[in-house]
Amino acid sequence: xxxxxxxxTPSYFRYTIGLLSRFPNFDLPFIFRLRRKAxxxxxxxxxxxxxxxxxxxxxxxxxxxxxxxxxxxxxxxxISSLVxxxxxxxxxxxxxxxxxxxxxxxxxxSPSGTFDGMVMFGAPDIYASPVALANLMPYLKDDxxxxxxxxxxxxxxxxxxxxxxxxxxxxxxxSSTPALxxxxxSPLKKYAAELEIHEYFYGCFFLASGPVSTGxxxxxxxxxxxxxRNRPVECETARNAPIHEPSAAKTT
Length: 252
Ligand SMILES: C[S@@+](CC[C@H](N)C(=O)[O-])C[C@H]1O[C@@H](n2cnc3c(N)ncnc32)[C@H](O)[C@@H]1O
Fold this sequence. Notes:
CATH superfamily: Vaccinia Virus protein VP39
CATH architecture: 3-Layer(aba) Sandwich
Bound molecules: S-adenosylmethionine
CATH class: Alpha Beta
Radius of gyration: 20 Å
Strand content: 15-25%
Shape: globular
Number of strands: 7
CATH topology: Rossmann fold
Largest sheet: 7 strands, mixed
């Protein structure tokens, strides 16, 4: 896994993570406010379980831990073992007993249990990846909320100047990262129809948040299938009609 990621991880990112491992609580000052906004938008209650996918060194953990309290759970998913170990250092230094990091690719990771919220902060490989989203959504409860923060092309007047710069910046990113566009949150709309979008820094960054749509999670599809199975059969045609069942059950 690590060697595959090494091919796609820019060396400046590996270097930064190396530095961060010595300062596990470090975070960029201007990002605090946005992390707090992202976590607030999840409306987590004490005791909630939350997924932080593409958690990196765990910059959002402090806000998530505060939101779910000591009875809740925070589960990070991170593809790089180097980065995951930095996140674990942050967990250890802060003495968090209810935070865990699953080392794996969001496109096929299988965290245990179901979750009340999912954050994808600065993680285009997750929020803009239909494959990663299709894998993760079944782990969300019916009333879960999701939030994504990231970079986008701006629609503002000076976009002609800024956008080439943003695209160049994005090319420095992971080789697996989807190309930048004006609505990188689009793949999320399939699962969350009522997304609220806020733009920052002249429209170069976005925060997209909202509830998952009814029927988007496997949990509700399973319930629906079980209701259909229990409904009395009314006629021969109905009895012979094919029953479509979900192929993979990933609930607890
Ligand atoms: C720009 S960093 C953001 C980290 C963190 N969310 C934060 O706010 O500081 C994106 C992270 O996503 C991870 N990542 C990229 N592709 C991934 C995938 N397919 N599955 C899980 N993690 C992934 C990278 O290794 C990196 O740590």
